[in-house]
Sequence to fold (240 residues):
Amino acid sequence: MNELIKLTPTEQFLQNTNMTITLKEIADKYGKENSKLVKSFEQQIGNLTDDRFESFDFWVDTVATQTGTGRIQNLKTYSMNVKTMVWFVAKFDANLRADVINYAFEKLEKEKSLAVKEAKKPIVYHDGRTSVRRCISEAWEDSDEQVPNESDIWDALIWKGFAMTKAKVTTTKIVPSNLEGHIGAMKNRGFATYHPDLVRQVWEEFELAGKPVKSETERLTEEFEKISKYYEEKLREAKS
Fold:
């Protein structure tokens, strides 16, 4: 069957991405009533011949919305592909059709950006654990508080006894063996995973305690002693 609706290159691109849009989104975006659009859509669809009806892709959908009294109610609407949407809005005016196409394109770009951002986040394991870096983004995601940096969070975890350092040439963060599986786990050397709620709680306790971090002199002295002890042991092993 020949195409009954000719799409512009931009519209065809959106169609090829399997973009869908709801009548409720159109109503909200352009100050129209969802119920009136639903009624108009059903009337227009009902006037199509069978072959034209089968050329479109749409389905009944529901969306949750909040009333003026704060009550949540489910509204009937329709979801549809770009081709069906173009056919429906074309009856209003050319400018509205252009606006809806631009809106759909912006919606697609936003979804792609969110998908890329999510893909770059460290993995979340089946029991909710993740790296400290993602713990920070998850635990403070909806907070207006200043987000602590990762090194400060590690200071808090070490202070709480939920992590410890093992000196070599560099410092490696590990979960103490007696807490393995309870507050976190080790995926490999230097990569400890925790639960976001735990990281948030430890940070709050750390702040209340006045952030009791060792002075730079104390920290360097302690690390030097650990490193010296490590190499002394290695030398003894080599001589034995």
